[in-house]
Amino acid sequence: MPLHIKRLIGVFAIFIALFLVMRQVLRPSSFGELGHFRAKAINENALRPMHYTVADSCTKCHKDIRSDKDLGFHIKLKCEVCHGPGLKHALYANRFKNKELPDSLLLYKPGERKDCAICHNMNRARIKIQFDTINTTMVHQVNVMKHHVTDPKTKEALKCIDCHNPHQP
Amino acid sequence: MNEDTTKLSRRNFFKAGTVLASGVAIASTLAPYDGLLFAAEAPGAKGKWYGIGIDINKCIGCGKCANACKQENNVPKDPFYFRSWVEQYTIKNDGSILVESPNGGIDGFKQSVPDGDIYKSFFVPKMCNHCAKSPCTQVCPVGATFETEEGIVLVDETYCIGCRYCVQACPYGCRYIHPEKGTVDKCTLCFHRLKKGLQPACFEICPTEARIFGDLNDPKSKLNYFLKNHTCMVIKPHLNTGSKLFYNALTPEVR
Amino acid sequence: MTEHLQNLYEVLSKVEGYVYPNEIELNWSILIVLYPYITGLVAGAFILASLERIFKVRILKPTYGIALLTAFSFMLVATMPLVSHLGKPLRAYEIMITPHSSSAMAIFGFVYLWYLMVVLFLEIWFDYRRDMVIWANGTTGFKRFLYKLLSLWTTDISPKAVALDDRIGYIVTVIGVPSAFLLHGYVGFIFGSIKANPWWSTVLMPVIFLFSAMVSGIALVMLIYIVLSKIRKQIVDMDCLDTIAKYLFYILIIDFTLEGLDQIHRIYVAEESFEALHKLVFGKLFYSLFIYQGLMGTIVPLLTLGTLQFYKPKAKIRRAIYLILPVLVLMGIFFMRWNVVIGGQLFSKSFYGYTTFKTGLIGTEGYLMAATWLIVPFLILSFLLWLLPPWKKIETSHE
Q1: Which of A111, A142, B151, C319 lies 20 to 30 Å from C41, alpha-carbon distance?
Q2: Who among A2, A26, A28 is closest to C93 (CB)?
Q3: Which residues in C lie closer than 8 A to residue B176 (C-beta atoms)?
């Protein structure tokens, strides 16, 4: 075999060897244990932070609201539906028993018309026509544009919660 | 001599035929036809095998699920990135179909069509189908997205190269490239909550319990009860993705 | 707000109908248009070179070296648009160390390296080795070092060694032809195998990509040959050009037929996606599909080349035609890639609406980046032509 062919093969052999070494070095440690992926990635996904808690963690402290809620149509609603993610609040609010809560622990207090309208505003898509052609709906439907827009005396715009208790509608 | 051979061969033929037929019969009991339910793995296999049920009749389009998903999983707030969103379908009397999803439904929906013109209207929440034969994990060139034993399709953020092939391969539009991370992001079925024994955020938050989540391998699970008692269907069944997101009252307009 | 988000909000205001929220952003942008375009040029140029080498079309001799060097310089850049569009470019190596066997994209790294190193590099190396040994003696300085390095400090140019080089070079070319088919058919498969996208998902996609690749590669070599002859003040070999034009004509017919077949089939079976695609083709893709790709990039060249098969005007006119036609063809194929890649993302997979394409001038996915990756191969080619000028080679008969 002529010299130049030998050297050419040598060059290719070096590159292939380098590639194989790099492949060993760079391949993540847990790769391929459970399939063609890093097995550790499963655990990494499991360790992401939570923001929402579960319903009982609210009513442990807010017992009064629970008893209110249990008597109304919103009995099945979880607090976080309206008040937003509350894990931090549930974990740390205890520490501020008689003090004011820092902003980071405060939850959203919905009170605007739009907050109620998001579920209750009249929308044909929310009304199901069943077999017997009786219109049924999962939620009470109100036309928020027409229903009590202003106070009859002061002529001021009223909020839904001025008349309806959201915890016991 | 001749007769004998024909007889023999005929007998052989019948013999072979019986063996073949019974073989096929046995094989067919061993490997039942993979219906749309339990698309890839037969029910009864070991461990959990998560699926999702959504009752379109119960959805009121509040968009709380889409909102909860964004908050729980730190999804960018801009209206181009969603792991979970809600669509409002309005079919007019003239047959035209209007689909809307302003900001994924997070800010609520308005009905833009006057009541008199509406034939019917409904909401469809969308999210990752956690397909059993998922086209997205199939195409990932490096193995940065995969299906866990529980049937959940996850992404390995630290390994994704951001080639976006999986985004193209998902028929349901459930993947996006995270603008800051440069890697792909998708619904994990709140894997971090599941592992703590909690429900995914969107299921936890749904005010009308339109979303049902459970173990397909457990015959007594809520999901199996839901599937048995409703006429359930997956989106785009012809693509044979083995979707595990089953909708009750799904109509063909939904794509 | 970043420019990227600004663009997205602008696109959002232009969305027609309904698209899934994640579809507003076009994920494969102009760089992914370039990727099949550049690989196509490589495969096409190589096929032209192999016509001379294995199919013994001797009349193409003047373009053999140019075609090889063109293929090589474009191949060096072929992965760059891909890598620079990645969300995490530094992780690109992963595709080589943990390729996923079920992914149509994963094998690209290996197919690419095979084609670049085993086919193109070896063919050029064996073709030029004797000349590099000789040139090394006639030069000094850096160029001499390069020649020495490239010939691996060997000096064996005995007739026996040269004959062996020629033999191996021939074998490499024979392997190279199926490799070129593989390379570009494979690029087509990346798109054709996406069942979620009805605009891409067709079994014809690899074949269409292959033939359009040949068309574009042949046109490019034709153009480079004419321009190069102008620069070097040499007379162009009209017989050679006529022959290239003839091959271009034949392959263009196949390409046109295949693409026509694809569309006719689409129209005839009229599947679920048909209405959405119909509106796309006559709306957002009208100019790029019918005018740029169809009329200017295919019909006009086809008619002109067809006419030239029967009627030969004067050499001067033919030369002008051969200068303009490749430009049209190259533009046509570029828009073919555009229509596939961008067109395939303009409609929603819900078939209810359309998004728009918008990209900036700068940025990793902007037009400047794309232009860079189109210009760099020409710079590499000029360097290679300076280092390994095919016209200074000792005449070999390739036999």
Answers
A1: C319
A2: A26
A3: 22, 25
CA-CA-CA-CA dihedral for C15, C18, C22, C27, to nearest 10: -50
From chain C, the residues in CB contact with B175 under 8 A are: 22
Show Cβ contacts of residue A136 under 8 Å, excluding neighbours closer than 6 positions.
Answer: A127, A128, A129, A130
Crossing angle of helices C159-192 and A3-26, rounded to 10°: 30
CATH 3.40.50 fits C3-11+23-96+171-389, yes or no: no
Q: Please report residues of A whose CB lies closer than 8 A to that of B150.
A: none
| Residue A106, min C-alpha distance to chain B (Å) | 15
- Phi, psi (5° rounding) for residue B172? -105, 0
| Structure token pair of residue C10 | 């602008």
Identify the helix (H) or strand (E) that includes residue B55. Answer: strand B50-55
> Can you list the alpha helix ranges (DSSP code H) found in C3-29?
3-14
Domain positions in chain A are: 3-46, 50-109, 110-164
Tell me, yes or no, if A146 comes closer than 8 A to chain B by beta carbon.
Answer: no
Q: Measured between CA atoms, how close is C97 to chain A, in angstroms?
A: 5
Q: What is the pTM of this model?
A: 0.90
> Among B6-15, B147-156, C18-27, C321-330, whose mean pLDDT is lowest?
B6-15
What are the E-state strand segments in C16-170? Answer: 16-17
Is B233 in contact with B247 (CB distance < 8 Å)?
yes
Domain ranges of chain C: 3-11+23-96+171-389
* Contacts A–B by Cβ distance under 8 A: 125
Per-residue pLDDT at A37 exceeds 90: yes
Q: Is B115 on the interface with A (CB under 8 A)?
A: yes
